[in-house]
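[09:14] KT: can someone run the structure on this one? pasting the chain below
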Amino acid sequence: MGTGGQNPMGNAVFSFRGMACLTGLMLMGAGRLAAQESRSDAFLLQQRALEEQVRAALNRERPADQRIEYDWGGWYSFYLFLFDDGIESSRTFRQHDFRLWGSANIDQGAHEIYGRLKLQFEDFNHGDAYDRNHDDTIGPNLDRAFYKFDLRQAARAYWNQSLDWDLSVKVGRDFVELGTGYALSMPLDHVLIVAEAAKLKATALMGTTIRSMPDIDRGRPGGGSSERNFWGGQLEYTGLQKHTPFVYGLINKDQKTEHPWVPMQNFDYDTWYVGVGSRGELLENLRYSTEWVWEGGESFGDRHFLTTSDVEAWAFDFLLEYLSRRAMKPRIWAEYMFASGDGGRYASPTNAIGGNTSENDTGFSAFGYRDTGLSFAPRLSNVHVWRAGAAFRPFENHEYLSNLEIGTDWFLYSKHHRDGAVSDPTANARSNYLGWEMDYFLNWRITADLAWTTRFGTFFPGKGFDDATTRTFFLTGVTYSF
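[09:31] RB: done, structure tokens below
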């Protein structure tokens, strides 16, 4: 900042140094706050994993064979979390979750209207919350709401014609995913246009984040909510019997204004993504999915407010899953996940404060999702993750236990850049080896309307942590749907 050397304007230099010192102190304080906030990344990903499980289990097909079909329902879930996050040796968290949905399917699916409300009550044991808010009611909020028009279904209902091509338009709030979900997999307020013809499927997306969702920059002033716009397009080839290759492009534009303003620090993260990949079946019962993602754009680094860094990052994922038809329905899977890092990001892989200090930002940061473990649950940035697991149904012939599945997941973690940060701020030692984790789970669909799940995970920190104390995570919960 040019404060060294001699200057005849001594008072001006003193004032400038004082302002710089004050700014430094403010940034240091914000950095400490960011470190505390960023630890909740794992907690957010743990909740996201739970949301993904419930979403997949309760995703219902709505019938379209009648002219007007009305339906409604909902579910109530209760979950108990007991975990050690490396900062507090024991945290206890309870979540009550109530969803109520309604749908209308008109003219054999030509028009679809869907809405869902969410009401949650969160309860930490005293002293266990990440902030001072130990009990909180969230909602009722609009969880999903959209209208969808399908031209092929309309031609069948109104003109008794069968089209060999299709065009559909969806407007509203719903879950959106490009590719296999490595760069984008989240609910958005959006317009989605899908056209299908000549064994090609083209998708166009215009969307914005739901304002209550957390931002990727957890140290940013303004409550940590996300305000981003997305534009994207995807092309899939559906002419192969067992493979569906795809290519997509996605633009992310940061819209958030910080309150309060932080002197000499900007936070915008404006990026674009190009992804290619495929999903399908290599051999009978052997499924795969893979995706490469290149990221570019601009970001603000630590104490940068006038100049940006060029983002030059990439990521890769490959998953194999074998679904056996033998007794007890065994499943076996293996996955490799990679997201590039930046050796100049010493304190955070995603935040501006404590973030990039070099001209180029090679740390990958996106808006997708993968299961990276229960206890450690790192964000996909500056990491290699190897995952392997298996599950089976030991009592498939028992009347009441036929839908009980037992399984395990094992994870191995390593940094991409030894000196770069990962999403867990307690990984503070200069080593690539982050550790390993073993997870166990039990899922039981007791009846058509009642399900129970239990998960237990243990993370064993590696040399990347000064504190090598084992961390455990336990979750149990029930879901009643109606």
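[09:33] KT: thanks! The longest strand covers residues 68-83.
[09:34] RB: yep, looked fine to me
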